[in-house]
Design brief:
Blueprint: H1 3-11, E1 22-26, H2 53-66, E2 70-74, H3 84-93, E3 97-102, H4 109-118, E4 122-127, H5 132-139, H6 144-155, E5 160-167, H7 175-184, E6 189-194, H8 199-203, H9 205-208, H10 212-229, E7 234-238, E8 258-261, E9 267-268, H11 289-295, H12 297-300, H13 318-321, H14 326-333, H15 349-357
Parallel strand pairs: 1-2, 1-8, 2-3, 3-4, 4-5, 5-6, 6-7
Antiparallel strand pairs: 8-9
Length: 375
């Protein structure tokens, strides 16, 4: 530990809080897909700035010592890291449960076996639609057919398997077919997640926002599928904030359950946190994981209730939703300390309703994830 870091630790009055349960490791922003709802930041990290194998290994061991249980290897596309098996092995050596979130592109039988031998315990595979042409349109690449073949490859291994489906206005009318396809891939778990409007999804919000009728129908279909699949496949759903009465507890609460490390080592409390003005995000290249979690300004900024304004500060729900999403509050109100507009008690909730019910422009074109200078 560096001298200045010891001094900062000594001077810190931050209340000791439990360590995070999960570490999201964005090992690269490179990706063969160009998804129209990609959650990566608009300004992505270049390949030459990525943490090395050794740096990631240190991070995993420090995270484990802090109390992390789950390691989520994601990107971009983690398969573009030639050292991915070494990263998996480092995670297992740190006694972490290792999950990989992937498009599947680049995964062969040989590489699947290599990752399994290294200790990979779970794969989460994305699925864009039941129709190949539309799936490839949303992904910005010809990936659908490969994903279906890959599912059979995954099932040959003794490894947990989740199919993740992102739903929106352009595919919700095919939800029944999408669920049937996901079920046919024989995962242990299916997650249906409505688009959350950050990053590239925010740029495409006008085309992605579902109608009230679509959301209502999706609730019924999900409920029916959960009953039908009970005891065989776990089906979870994430519904759109723009149709909520109260906000979700964003990532379990700011700086409470999760830490994200981006490809260059920047530590974030959530996926979209870099959009917030006035916050500096420290790096694992300069500080230990423990210091980042307990003492960094960014992780402490929206912990507790001291930052809250009315109506959050006096609300009986503040221990339930912890004020909702700071990034959504900033995007829609201009102030990250305002109530999340997903809450019906927010004076900005009407604006959220207007956006959700706005008539889409059918002439609008997709804005695809850009990979310039990141290959």
């Amino acid at each position: 530990m560096k001298l200045d870091e010891r001094q900062q630790n000594k001077e810190s009055t931050t209340e000791l809080i439990p360590g995070p349960l999960s570490l999201v490791a964005e090992v690269t922003h490179r990706c063969p897909l160009h998804c129209v709802y990609c959650s990566n930041p608009l300004q992505m990290k270049s390949a030459d700035s990525e943490l090395s194998t050794e740096e990631w290994s240190r991070v995993f061991h420090e995270a484990s010592a802090l109390g992390v249980i789950h390691l989520h290897l994601t990107g971009g596309e983690p398969l573009l890291r030639p050292d991915l098996a070494k990263l998996v092995a480092a995670g297992r050596e740190a006694n972490l449960y290792v999950n990989m979130i992937t498009s599947g592109l680049g995964l062969t039988a040989a590489r699947m076996q290599e990752l399994k031998d290294a200790g990979l315990e779970h794969i989460q595979l994305s699925l864009q639609d039941a129709e190949e042409e539309r799936a490839n349109e949303f992904a910005g690449a010809r990936a659908h057919a490969h994903k279906l073949k890959l599912a059979a490859l995954i099932r040959q291994q003794d490894i947990a398997f989740t199919v993740n489906v992102v739903v929106h206005r352009e595919n919700l009318d095919r939800l029944e077919a999408i669920l049937a396809l996901a079920e046919s891939l024989e995962p242990q778990r299916i997650e249906v997640a409505h688009v959350q409007y950050y990053g590239w999804a925010l740029k495409n919000r006008g085309k992605l926002m579902p109608t009230p009728a679509q959301v209502e129908r999706s609730l019924t279909l999900i409920s029916q599928a959960q009953a039908r699949l009970s005891g065989r496949i776990q089906l979870q759903a994430v519904f759109p904030d723009y149709y909520a009465r109260y906000p979700k507890t964003c990532v379990g609460g700011w700086g409470r359950l999760m830490m994200l490390i981006d490809p260059a080592g920047q530590a974030l409390p959530c996926h979209a946190a870099t959009i917030l003005p006035g916050l500096e995000f420290d790096s694992v290249r300069s500080h230990s994981v423990e210091w980042l979690w307990r003492h960094s300004t960014a992780f402490n900024r929206y912990r507790g209730h001291g930052w809250m304004k009315e109506p959050c500060s006096d609300c009986e729900r503040k221990e339930i939703d912890l004020g909702g999403c700071r990034c959504q509050a900033f995007q829609l109100t201009g102030d990250a300390a305002n109530a999340d507009p997903a809450c019906s008690l927010s004076d900005q909730h009407g604006r959220l309703v207007e956006i959700a019910q706005a008539t889409p422009s059918h002439e609008a074109q997709w804005v695809y994830r850009i990979l310039t200078n990141h290959s």
